[in-house]
Design goal:
about 230 residues; mainly alpha; two-stranded antiparallel ribbon; 10 helices; about 5% strand; elongated
Length: about 230
């Protein structure tokens, strides 16, 4: 399948998130160009963008490789999301359009219906579309871009357990939309902050980086037995 040049960056990023390109693996321009059906020029540009986003690193003698983020970097991503999601909801309450509200309400109706029926298959994608639309409703392209990058990287690094009570989770989505529709920025911020904090607890790391493994080996070494050593 040939992919338009402007979509190469998205395609490589999606494949990294999906695990097609494994952590630490090399990303050669020639192989990527062949895979996505484009020349090496857009691939080179895409790798620069992905390096700026933190998905790719350039290593001496190896070139472009898939990054291997640490546990601390993963924790930082969740903390950043907890700060930026409520900001996005605040801005959405101030700047949303009727078109945004229509989409948000439709997603909430679908999510609540699926949650009541116990059909969890679609809930994750519906939740992603909800938060993406909420970010777009903020009217801030910079904030929307940051939140999108955070969602991509968090999806790459973490497995998210299904909420214990999906009905309650989607009730929170509905409360956020109600606050946004009323223009109540403070309530939209507070509910979104609570919702983001609760969802953060359901995240489990998909992998451990080599640096984290090395750190654990060093810290787990037993103390040296100096009993009987003469000074």
């Amino acid at each position: 399948m040939r992919i338009p040049a402007h979509s190469v960056c998205t395609a490589i990023r999606d494949d990294i998130v999906a695990g097609v390109h494994e952590r630490g693996s090399r990303l050669t321009e020639e192989l990527l160009a062949r895979r996505y059906g484009v020349s090496r020029v857009p691939v080179r540009e895409a790798l620069r963008t992905l390096e700026a986003e933190g998905f790719v690193v350039t290593r001496r003698h190896a070139g472009a490789c898939v990054a291997e983020p640490t546990e601390q970097e993963g924790a930082d991503l969740l903390e950043m999301r907890m700060l930026l999601e409520p900001l996005g909801a605040t801005r959405a309450a101030q700047r949303r359009t009727e078109a945004h509200l229509k989409v948000l309400r439709g997603l909430v109706r679908l999510g609540q219906e699926r949650a009541r029926r116990g059909n969890s298959d679609d809930l994750r994608s519906l939740g992603g579309w909800f938060h993406e639309t909420l970010a777009q409703a903020s009217g801030s392209p910079a904030l929307t871009s940051l939140l999108t990058q955070l969602r991509h990287k968090i999806a790459w690094m973490y497995v998210v357990d299904a909420p214990a009570n999906p009905v309650e989770s989607w009730a929170e989505h509905g409360a956020i939309v109600d606050a946004v529709a009323r223009g109540d920025a403070e309530r939209a911020r507070a509910i979104t902050a609570l919702h983001t904090e609760r969802s953060g607890a359901a995240h489990r790391l998909r992998f451990t980086s080599r640096q984290d493994r090395a750190d654990r080996v060093r810290t787990s070494q037993p103390p040296v037995n100096v009993t009987g050593v003469r000074h």
